[in-house]
TrEMBL record:
Superkingdom of this protein's organism: Bacteria
Protein EC: 3.1.3.5
Gene source species: Rahnella laticis
SUPFAM superfamilies registered for this protein in UniProt: HAD-like
Pfam family, one: Hydrolase
Enzyme class: hydrolase
Protein name: GMP/IMP nucleotidase
GO molecular function annotations of the record: 5'-nucleotidase activity
């Protein structure tokens, strides 16, 4: 059963990218497989040792800007994260339900804004290979603001730039801590994605409605009052 949002009260839809509009399998493969393998080869250590090092490094900065920062990881691991990402860009994939959903939202007259913690280089590589930018009104990387979505200062800065009304905004993300941050800021409608990674089992959300296919929402999305944008 899709969530029963009052679409008459929603003007703006803020959307996460990885795991929400794109298949998170790309990032899972890169950060959990490719990076540990490269570290193993570079340091001439067993792969399992490299995995443990990477795991500990990730946990140390989780939910901070560094966790998403290519410069940080390039320096910390002495790996060319930029080039490694470019090399596998062709593997980036839109979810099957992404284009129908974004097309329907635009046709309904609502503003669609991408808000991603992804590094700008990662964003540009993924846009190049998926054409995601063609289906959105605005694309924002939190790196340009200096704070991740977990930080309340980010939401204030984005609101100042875009003018979105939290009471009339839907935010969609695959991470519950980030949905919590949006809710804390005052965003009225929050939605979780149960199947961010096509290679992994679905996840559940404790405090938010969630879906595994955007197309389940389409019948309930009425046009906004007035001419379509």
């Amino acid at each position: 059963m899709p969530p029963d949002f009052d679409w008459n009260n929603i003007d703006t839809v803020l959307l996460d990218m990885d795991g929400t509009l794109l298949d998170l399998a790309f990032d899972s493969q890169f950060w959990l497989q490719d990076v540990p393998l490269a570290l193993s080869q570079q340091r001439a250590i067993p792969l399992e040792n490299a995995r443990q090092i990477i795991h500990d490094e990730y946990l140390a900065v989780q939910h901070t800007m560094n966790w998403y920062c290519f410069d940080y990881w390039s320096e910390r691991l002495d790996l060319d994260i930029y080039q490694m990402t470019t090399n596998i860009g062709k593997n980036a994939r839109l979810r099957d339900d992404t284009v129908p959903f974004l097309t329907h939202l635009r046709q309904s007259g609502r503003q669609t804004i991408l808000l991603t913690n992804a590094h700008p280089h990662s964003l540009s590589v993924k846009i190049e290979h998926t054409g995601l930018d063609q289906h959105l009104d605005l694309l924002l990387s939190t790196h340009t603001f200096g704070y991740p979505k977990e930080d309340q200062r980010l939401w204030s800065a984005v609101q100042q730039q875009t003018g979105f009304n939290p009471e009339r905004t839907l935010f969609v993300d695959d991470g519950e801590p980030i949905l919590n941050a949006a809710k804390t800021f005052g965003i009225r409608y929050c939605l979780g994605i149960e199947n961010p990674d096509s290679t992994m089992a679905d996840k559940s959300f404790q405090d938010y409605p969630s879906i595994n296919d955007f197309r389940s929402l389409l019948p309930s999305i009425d046009p906004v009052a007035g001419p379509a944008r």
